[in-house]
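re: that chain from earlier
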Amino acid sequence: MMPPAGCGSLAAVLLAGAAFAQTHKVSDADVAAVQRSAILIDTHNDVTSDTVDGLDVGLRRSTGHTDLHRLREGGVSATFFAAYVDKKYAKTGESAHRTLEMIDTIRHDIVGRYPARVRLALTAADIEAAHREGKFAALIGIEGGHAIEDSLRLLRDYYALGVRYMTLTHVNSNNWADSSGDVDDPSVTHHNGLTPFGRDVVHEMNRLGMMVDISHVADKTFWDALETSTAPLFASHSSCRAVSGIPRNMTDQMILALAKKGGVVDVNFGCEFVSQKSADAGLPWMTKIMAAPDDATRTALTAEYRKSIVRATLNDAVDNIDHIVKIAGIGAVGIGSDFDGVECTPVGLDDVSKYPNLTRALLQRGYSSRDIRLIYGGNVLRVMRSVEAESARLRAVHSASVILSTDRK
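^ sequence. v structure.
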């Protein structure tokens, strides 16, 4: 069992884990038992950027990080697939069109194509039911708030289509929220966090029962969203800035504040996210790639970046989990791999089939099977239930106010 949050330094925790690993052999049976008992939920996977172009996720492939075969081998129970909307669509007025295509690829190309193996999940209870049935649960999360084209009506339509979280921004600031990706760019119009309409978006997400995702947002946007939301927030794919100092990662103060409000930080496995060495080598390239003016330039820069990759390790990923547990407790951490959305993954966490390696590493660090069940899915299920409960409360309040207003007429 890990020490309680706040006990001792991170160095002491890591040293204790290392000593435990030297004296405690973790068997294959130990790993398999934990894998069987856990509902493993990955809150961010970008294979949809391939399925929308025709990839059959039911076929094993030798490239990429995700297919249904490897998901089963990794013991993954549920995944939030990203309805990712590139910033270029905001420039052409096609954000909603692209969002609908991305939602469709999840509903049609993944769920609809393999109904015997995959079930669309809309609630925490749906995930648990799919797990009991031996099915994989597919969920939908929009990546990029420009998807709603500044319309709460579109936000409500997306919810009706099954979207259960939205990342308030992607790498680009939108008309109502600032992004960490361009917050220092003087050529971009910024809002000092959320605008009044941005707060309305958060309120409407609370009412609908859609989780507010603060991965990608600027720090001020995070604090505004935390203040505005009446339901817990979560970071669907972010790691620790104290471990790797990139703007996309969360500071200790942010992690602690998120946790105090019941939220969860789902660790991103991208090499730059979990390792400072990887970030130092890769971040200049990623900045160039994100700023590329067109797809051809982006492809060329990505090819150059791949030649200079410094890969992180499985232990780097576990260090991020350790850090969150140390400062905010076991209830504050989850998994948001960003598989198929990052160019570099840690050695030992090469794709979705490698979760047993992570299970072994966590056991060796001294985490109990209960701890791992919380990290793998229990914490996210709790957040989902809290968001669902707050939605029910807000809808009831709204209904009561409508009835009262009608009675007075």
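The chain has 17 helices and nine strands.
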